[in-house]
Design brief:
single chain, alpha+beta, Aminopeptidase, 4 helices, 5 strands, globular, GNAT_dom, acyltransferase, GNAT family N-acetyltransferase, Bact_Acetyltransf
């Protein structure tokens, strides 16, 4: 059975290979400095970024989720953005992804958020099969304008 718990400082060595696997999956590269900053922000109560770790029956880390909240123009209540979700490839289909989403959803309800939302790549068919079961597709298309650092 999958267990979900908040990320803690001692989880860094278990989280890091999962984080790297997540970046590889999305064919993304981040500097070691950005990865360290992300980790510190997740643990820093001054930042509205939160994280949880999924573990298997043996206590091995098999996935993670990161989320944040923000004010909204269409609601008096804040929104909860599920920014990162990853389950190790060899443990997909075990319910870990569903449990991580349920964890964020429970947290967001308790926090008083109006909704939880997230994005994924259109080719992420395995995850989208789960997402179609637990959430409602909105039909919106994502656009962005990036800036050089």
């Amino acid at each position: 059975m999958t267990a979900i718990r908040p990320l803690a400082p001692a989880d860094h060595d278990a989280w890091l290979p999962l984080w790297r696997g997540y970046l590889t999956f999305y064919e993304a590269e981040l500097s070691d400095e950005q990865t360290a900053l992300t980790w510190h922000r997740i643990l820093d109560p001054q930042f509205p970024i939160h994280g949880a770790l999924a573990t298997d029956d043996a206590g091995n880390a098999i996935g993670f989720v990161h989320w944040l909240t923000h004010a909204a123009t269409w609601s008096a209540l804040p929104y909860c953005y599920l920014e990162d979700l990853f389950v190790a490839p060899d443990t997909r289909g075990t319910g870990a992804g569903r449990a991580l989403i349920a964890h964020v959803t429970g947290w967001a309800r308790e926090y008083g958020a109006a909704k939880v939302y997230w994005l994924t790549h259109e080719t992420n068919t395995t995850a989208r099969t789960l997402y179609d079961r637990v959430a409602t597709g909105t039909g919106f298309v994502h656009y962005e304008i990036g800036f050089d650092s």
